[in-house]
Amino acid sequence: MSSKGSTIYELDADNQICHIDGDWDQFLQANTDEPQNRDRLRKKQVIGNKLETYVQDTTTRMLLHTVFDFVRQTQQTKALPYRCDSADRKRYMSMQIEPLADAGLRVSHTQLRSEPMDPPVVINPVTDANEAIVWRCSICNRIESEQVWLEPDEAALLWCRQSFNVSYTVCPVCMNSV
Description:
The protein is an alpha+beta fold. It has helices at 24-31, 35-41, 43-46, 58-74, 152-159, 172-177; strands at 6-11, 17-22, 78-83, 89-99, 105-116, 122-125, 134-137, 143-145, 148-150, 163-169. It contains six helices and ten strands; from the N terminus they run ββααααβββββββαβα.
């Protein structure tokens, strides 16, 4: 099952990716700069791996497991709003999780709208353990500044920066909304 502008994958009972439909490779090509990441994340490389392999932080993994368990136990579809920004676009997305037979799940990601990010903000994951931690929410993409969560472009203006090296978590607002 595919719908225009959506990326859809199916998980088995162990959250292993068993099927991918939609525009996965096209989205990857348009949104991944590093060739090694593009090759590692292509559809044929991802199928057969557990979803959590691709989730960077423990808090987001736990949140996804909680939502997946809810859908499996209640057999009710759940939709989660989130953001998947590029350096120059705020992309508002929806992740819809539907129950399937044998405790499987169908997960659909659809872009609802986008708007300019001004100024553009480049986000990179932290690579050095000694680097100062800047937290970014995996759901809303806000960046923490002194216990206040700001839009990336607001944080860039406040800190006079065009890029951030971040570690991921889930902010309190997003954690409570799920």
